[in-house]
Amino acid sequence: MTFSPAETARETTPDIGVAARAERLKRVPDDKAMLRAVAELTRDLGTANPRIFWSDFLFSAFLGYAALAVAIVAAPLWLQLVAAAVSILALYRAGGFIHEVTHMKHSSVPGFRFGFNAVIGVPLLVPSYMYEGIHNLHHSRTRYGTDQDPEYLPLALMKPWTLPVFILVSILAPLALLFRNAVLAPLSLFIPPLRRLVVERYSGLVINPAFRRRPAEGEARRNWIWQETVASIWSIALLTGVFTGIIPLNAFLIFLAIVSAVAVLNQIRTLVAHLWENDGEPLSVTAQFLDSVNVPPPGLLPALWAPVGLRYHALHHLLPSVPYHALGEAHRRLSAELAPDSAYHNASYKGLPGLAYRLAKSTMVRGA
C-alpha cells in the first residue's frame, strides 16, 4: 500500500510512533505538482547578488570580531557577557556562509571563497575545504539518509542519550580542530598512514561516524592544500603565542569559549534541521523534503539560530543552487501558488522548541 505525499505528511505525526513514521516515509511518492511548481516559479531566483553577499558577510564578521574584542578587554562582567552573546551570534552568521561557498557558482561572486577563508574560515578553524566536497553528498538523490550520507544520522530512531552527546561533543570542537591543524596535519606529511586517517576521518564537517572521505582531485585538491596549510600555520602561531605569553591566556580562553559556543549553536540548529526519521533507505525527493524542516516567518528567532537561509532548509533541499537571499521569495511564491493539500505546506514548523520536543519524544519512546 502506498500513500500520496499529502496523505503521508498529514499522518506523519508524533502520535503514530517514529518506527511507523519511518516506514511511511519510505513509501512517499514524489509530489510531481509540487516539484513542477518549484522548477517553474523559481527560475529567476538562481543568481547570487554579490552586493548582498559581501555586505552581509563582512558586516557580520566585523560585528563578531568587534564584540569579541570587547568581551576580552571589557571590565564589567555584564558588558563582557553581552559582548560575548553578540559575538557568538554574529560570528555564527558569518560562519554560515560556508554553506553558500559550497553551493555557489564562484564566478557569480568573484573572490568570495578566498574572502570567506581569510576572514572566517581560517581564523575560526573551519576552512571551506572541510565542507566543500562533503555537503554536496548530503544532497545526492541516492545518498540522502543512508550510511553514505556524511550529514545524516537517524537520531529519531536512536537512544535518548545520543541527543545530549550529539550536542556536548561540539563543545570540544575548537580544541579538536586546533589539534588537527597544529599537530596531526604537519605530522601526516611524513607519516602516510596518518595522512590517510586525517583525510578520511578528520577533514570534513560531518556527523556520520561511518563516513570516510576520499582524497580530493584537481582544483578541489589545490584549494584543500592551500587552505589546510594556512590553517595549520595559523593554529601553530596561535598556540605558540599562548605558550610564549604573547597572547594572554585569558584572551585565548575567551576566544575558545566563544568559538565553542558558535559550534554548540550550530549543532543545536543541526539537531532540528531534519526530522531524522529515515532508517537508511533511499528516499524520493519529496520524502527527503518532508524529512527536512522549514521555519518560515512570522517567527523572528529562527533568523538568529538558523541564519543565512537555513530557516528554509527543506526548501533548500529542493533548490540547492538558489542563493540564501532568494529563498524567502521562493517560499512566498510556492506557499501562495500550491494548493492547501500540497506536501509543500507540511514541511513548515513554528520553531526550535517544538522540533526539539518532537525529536526528544521520539528517542524516549524508542529507548523505552
Automatic annotation (TrEMBL):
Extent of the signal sequence: none
Record's GO cellular component terms: membrane
Gene Ontology terms, MF aspect: oxidoreductase activity, acting on paired donors, with oxidation of a pair of donors resulting in the reduction of molecular oxygen to two molecules of water
Keyword Transmembrane helix: yes
Protein name: Fatty acid desaturase
Cited CDD domains: Membrane-FADS-like
Domain Fatty acid desaturase: residue ranges: 77-345
Transmembrane segments: 62-92, 112-131, 161-179, 249-268
Keywords (A to Z) from UniProt: Membrane, Transmembrane, Transmembrane helix
Biological processes per GO annotation: lipid biosynthetic process
Source organism: Sphingorhabdus profundilacus
Coiled-coil intervals, chain numbering: none
Pfam families in the record: FA_desaturase
InterPro entries to which the protein is assigned, alphabetical: FA_desaturase_dom (IPR005804), Fatty_acid_desaturase (IPR012171)
